[in-house]
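sorry for the late reply, my laptop died twice this morning and i had to redo everyting from scratch. anyway the thing you sent over, i finally got around to it. pasting the sequence first so we're on the same page, its 208 residues, then the predicted structure underneath. double check i copied it right bc i was rushing
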Amino acid sequence: MALTTTQKLVLGFGVLCVLAGVFVLSLRGSPLGREPIRVQLPPPTEKQVEEIVVYVEGAVNRPGLYNIPKGSRVWDAVQAAGGLEVDGDAQSINPAEQLRDGQKIIVASAAKPPAEPVSPPEPSAPSPPRLQQPQATTPELIPPTGTVSINEATEGELASLPGIGPELAARIVYYRSEHGRFQYLEDLMRVRGIGQARFEQVKPYIRL
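ok and here's the structure:
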């Protein structure tokens, strides 16, 4: 049976619709019709802060080695060591100085050592006529001819050192019994009453 012109047009339109549907379905199944895959990258890590190592000792609350961020100042290291002691001398350091790796910071003590009582000389007996006698003088401590071990010396040996005396010698022995042996000669400045000037005075006469 022959188709009319109208039937042919309807049939052709239907074929086009079927082909269009097949084309759309093929796009959904192909990679072109899929949504792009999102890849989440890990967040960037913070850059590690470069550090240096410094040693703080003297009139601070917690002497020792400390890791300090590079570019810090001397005062930052003092604060890391617990701050100054009550008798710490801030004038003995430059707080604004920039630190360098391996630097050693010594905070001196500003406390004045207690004055040692001086007993009055005993009156000497009158000398006989035409007899000369040496004038009595107040005995003084004589520096030792050698060096004294600050870890082994007794109070008497320490008291014979220049600028030490019995009271500071007792403090040294007490500090040694509480904290153990001195590791460096400069550790002597941890004893209350021994500052930078007194340490320099006694340094030639001591050893570990």
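The first helix runs from residue 5 to 29.
thats about all i looked at so far, will dig more tmrw
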